[in-house]
Amino acid sequence: MLINKSVTPLKIIQWTGHHAAWLLTFAGIIAFLYSNERLIPIYKRDILFKIAEHFGLKTNQSTKISDIQEVMIANKPSHKDVYGFMRELYFKFAKGDKEISKGNEEGSSKLRQGKRKRKGTTNRNTQSQT
Question: Rounded to an integer, what distance in angstroms lies between the CA atom of residue 78 and that of residue 81?
Fold first, then answer.
């Protein structure tokens, strides 16, 4: 049995509490995958709040992500797809975010910039394997 004198339900909640943000992000990603591109794929709550306030929605801790998504979709230009609109909003409202590579507005991350290209082989191994 998982719960005993040393492992209480309160301790389990404390251990899993920091995983709640990951769980909410994961749920947002799943929702986007099933939305048929009717959601803007931005999952960071603080950035979503900045975007909502920009579009005139008053936000607090109880503001629903679905309400923010409705406001963003209502203000999405018809000539842009959800990915282009997401990039525009993210780079406009995520200033100072550590995950954005500085000076690059196309969305490549620092990991992509530092990635080495694979080097092909110069000779073939034609021996049969046994």
Answer: 8
